[in-house]
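Action item from last week, closing it out:
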Amino acid sequence: MTHWLIAPVVLPAMLAPFIVLAARYHIGIQRAFSVAGVVALIVISAALAWNASDGTVEIYQLGDWAAPFGIILVGDSLSTLMVLLTAVLALCVLLYAIGSEWDDRGTHFHALFQFQLMGIMGAFLTGDLFNLFVFFEVLLIASYGLMIHAGGTARLRAGVQYVLFNLIGSTLFLFALGSIYAETGTLNMADLAARVALIDPAETVGIRVASVLLLLVFAIKAAVVPLHFWLPSSYAEAPAPVAALFAIMTKVGGYAIIRVYTLIFPPDVEVTSGLHDLWLLPAALASLAIGMIGVLAAKRLDRLVAFAVIGSMAMVMVSIALFTPTGIAAALYYIVHSTLAAAALFLIADLVRTGRGNVELTAQAPMAGAALTAALFFIGAIAMAGLPPLSGFIGKLLVLDAAFDTDMMVWVWIIVLCSSLISILGFARAGSVLFWKAHSVTHSEDDLVMPRPTTLSYVAVGALIGLLTLHTVFAGQVHGYTTRIAATLFEPTAYSDAVLNTPGKLSKPKKEGEH
């Protein structure tokens, strides 16, 4: 057992109150400690990912209490990949928040940012469903504060909508947990996997209801149609760095579906048969279509990016819903791409707002720093639309390949290709209005006097674009790694053995006949 596994949760949990209590009125000290903490998170997360890359499953038992009775954290190749992705994203977002001074437009930004990281890291590392619920609530409470950072009527209205939808999800989550515990007597995921497999097929009503409720909860987090209504306004109205960090929030829902429905309710278990192909896949395809139509219809750049997030997450869900090793491998590759591309576009939208005063998709006077901002937007749009040569194109090819031998192959290919065309048209329209047609508008010298984005802001966006480029260059190695992760998910023996057979203060009692 290594204590490093709990560090991604404990470090931000300790930094947040320290920033509030010791550096409340000193923004420079807050920035220094926040950046130092995120850099430390990257180092720790990289070490954990490296340790798990050979299939090692690391277990941390809080209080040294053995599973399934104690609280445990599990560091396998999937969870450590997501933790590392979160840490890297957090650094880029934090640098942008500092460079643009978004962190100084309200109170407690850095403390809330650290609490948000604590919740996200805990959700990825936890080994039981109840603590998944707890970490969901931690990250949601922090996100409520970040949503309304710097105030504003529109932001507050979107925040209330965000709160209401997620409270519904939290309530459903509690109902699901109650049903599962009533049926099995445990909430530890590894222990649940063993107990669900032993349930008599004639007595599965309770566990079927619980599995459907869980899927609804995770679908809300992943903004799957028809549970997506909260996302466009919430992400569009949120401060740009907050919206960029929220790019990983929908992935928490996708991660939870992968973890729960490959470990506890795999496709070959009769209890949940048909749940993924009959329900999840059609909903994901509908989400993809609606998301990209929203991109084409959006009248503001921030809402365009928000709908692009729905579409890109739908691509992930289409691949997940196939529930095959190739599908999960493609989904994990696309998760990394989608997170980086969405975050970059939210920050680019803020560069546009800074340079031109608004993000309305109407022809106006040229903006400050238009050339560099236009170049970044062009690259980000190519990535999100899935055009070659960037990783979005590779990711979509992987998803299409994963669907090739399935019954829904025709529908998947048609909707993915048509939605890609629609997204290209939507991003092309936005780019031409913002950067090309601007030169045809009559303007005075005063129109050009707008604040220019800072160098650090461009560095943060450039870092995300650079990571997308690396994700493309090393696509073979990354996909090979995600393929190995998918293989372990469909052969979860190592995960279950590590969780249930690690000794602690109170080991799991042996069943009859065991010696």
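Closing note: The first helix runs from residue 7 to 22.
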